[in-house]
Fold this protein.
Amino acid sequence: MMKNGRVPLRTTLALSALIVASAVAYGAWSANPGPRFHGTTYEEVAPAPDFRLVDHDGRPVTLASYRGHPVLLFFGFTHCPDVCPTTMSRLGRVIGDLGGRAEDVRVLLVTIDPARDTPAVMKEYVRRFGPFATGLTGDSAAVAAAMAGYGAYVMPPPPTEGPAAAHGAHAPRRPGAMPHTSVVYGIDREGRLRVVISDAATEEQTRDDVRALARL
């Protein structure tokens, strides 16, 4: 109880302790406010969508199979003429540049073309991008479920025969082209989706985001 307008000593000490604790907490936060990404982030960090696929050695895997590793998840296919090899090469250079700071990062290439991309085909394809890369495939239903979980899309090739094609209903594409989602999903060691890296990101921006992800 206050007497003569004075605050009791016990209350003063408690308030002082609270102020000090708040200052310490703020100092710790300001010194380490969390990762700063160039890519798209989320206000609420949530578990990344799971999947049930087969790796390029024929082993059944889920996202939990890579728990403890930062994961860069990308949807593509081995016959892709442009964006897939470009993205995989960029990720390979970035991980190589970061060296030990990214030695446990895993790049998962999930095929959007399971009819052609068997485990053996995927293995031969990803080996050119470094030991950190793994190709994932499965039956059409499993691949479709994985894509749906991330909101990924693929535009099938236009028809090559029939009235629609004959009347130019579809613009011509380069051989092998199947426009598809081309972003990279950054998932932390605990399986949470942290950042989406655009295909328009520069190599420096990608390097910064992979470095930040690896620090989590």
